[in-house]
Structure to design on (254 residues):
């Protein structure tokens, strides 16, 4: 049965005018970085299969593309995504255990996660 | 509805008839990915741009081969579960949704198996 009042009710705020907050922005970033890491999985498998069965010339081509300046830019984005998704994922697991739901706590752990993912990215690029 | 108790209606079911299985697997694979992602990514990143010999030597090492296989198996399962939730949230048309969920399962299975095959071939080349 169609709702006669459809289109005549107050709407929730549109995304463009919804104030960014330390609660929902990290939440959608978790989803975006998770989807983005699919590209990381593709690159990993591409490189591994090139190394195993591609022959030397093909491996050199693939390895060269991944380590080109554009490749490095993609790798940097993927490292940031991995670091963020990893740390924010731990934040989610803590919530699953029943802790950290107070708004102030949730905002502080969100800020810590963002700072931590930049730090972790820098550390990973230094050691690797 | 009728006279059945709520427990009898809820047991093992839910909208997808799989109860909390999806949710729980997402958590189990998430916990496993915390150490696996670091253990895999650091030697992998060091091998990038270091030549074919280095790549082959890395996964000829049983420890790194095992970490890589676990990373690929658990990681692509985690990815499949996560992408499925995104598809379920944003694709309202039942046909498209079902098709994308199937494509997602196949994409993740093929990439996981291709990666595991590649590592196994290097590891077992002797």
């Amino acid at each position: 049965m169609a709702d006669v009042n459809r289109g005549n009710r107050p709407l929730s705020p549109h995304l463009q005018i919804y104030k960014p907050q330390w609660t929902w922005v990290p939440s959608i970033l978790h989803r975006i970085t998770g989807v983005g890491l699919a590209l990381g999985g593709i690159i990993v498998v591409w490189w591994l299969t090139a190394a195993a069965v591609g022959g030397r010339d093909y491996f050199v081509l693939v390895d060269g593309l991944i380590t080109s300046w554009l490749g490095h830019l993609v790798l940097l984005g993927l490292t940031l995504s991995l670091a963020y998704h990893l740390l924010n994922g731990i934040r989610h697991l803590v919530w699953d255990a029943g802790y950290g739901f107070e708004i102030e706590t949730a905002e502080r752990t969100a800020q810590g996660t963002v700072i931590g993912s930049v730090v972790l990215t820098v550390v990973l690029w230094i050691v690797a | 509805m009728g006279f059945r108790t709520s427990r009898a209606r809820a047991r093992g079911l839910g909208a997808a008839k799989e109860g909390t299985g999806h949710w729980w697997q997402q958590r189990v694979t998430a916990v496993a990915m915390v150490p696996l992602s670091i253990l895999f990514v650091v030697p992998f990143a060091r091998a990038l741009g270091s030549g074919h010999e280095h790549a082959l030597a890395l996964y000829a090492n049983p420890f790194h081969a095992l970490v890589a296989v676990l990373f690929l198996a658990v990681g692509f399962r985690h990815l499949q579960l996560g992408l499925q939730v995104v598809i379920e949230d944003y694709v309202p048309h039942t046909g498209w949704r079902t098709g994308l969920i199937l494509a997602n399962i196949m994409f993740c299975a093929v990439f996981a198996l291709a990666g595991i095959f590649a590592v196994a071939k290097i590891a077992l080349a002797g």
